[in-house]
Amino acid sequence: MPDYMLLLYADEGSPAEQEARQAEMPLWQEFTDSLREAGLLVGSDRLYPVESATTVRVRDRETQVTDGPFAMTKELLGGYYILRCADLDEAIKHAARVPLARYGTVEVRPLMEIGVRAATGEAATAA
After folding, report:
1. Which tens digits make up the pLDDT trace of 25-79?
2. What are phi and psi of 68, to 5 degrees?
3. Domain that holds residue 62
């Protein structure tokens, strides 16, 4: 079964909105527990606020380090889930259940199986 990453985006919100979102933590725990019990949850975490971000670029062999996010946008990446689902339709079904989907955006992306392909290629080369 393929893995899908659910990227969770929302605007920072006013202090009142932030307080209301914090009050939803039992909904988040219920959602996460349901994924774990169904055997779909591979990983999940919240991210520190965007002010903690550091962006790294290499240009002309020079490393450039910038405080802050890669891009300034209204909606900020706040966390993620990695789910092992049968297909994209199942991943979308669970993305719609994320509590944040009511006020933010959940982006669903399939994960590439690079490690599996690399190991397969190495085995073929050895043979």
Report:
1. 999 999 999 999 999 999 999 999 888 888 898 999 999 998 876 666 678 899 9
2. 110, 175
3. 3-126
Q: What is the 3-state secondary structure (H, E, C) of the chain?
A: CCEEEEEEEECCCCHHHHHHHHHCHHHHHHHHHHHHHCCCEEEEEECCCHHHCEEEEEECCEEEEEECCCCCCCCEEEEEEEEECCCHHHHHHHHCCCHHHHCCEEEEEECCCHHHHHHHHHHHHHC
- How many domains would you assign to the chain? 1
For the record, the structure tokens of 93 come out as 């079904």
- Mention every residue, 6+ apart, whose C-beta is less than 8 A from residue 21: 13, 103
Query: What's the whole-model pTM score?
Result: 0.80
- Find the CATH number of the domain harbouring 10: 3.30.70.1060
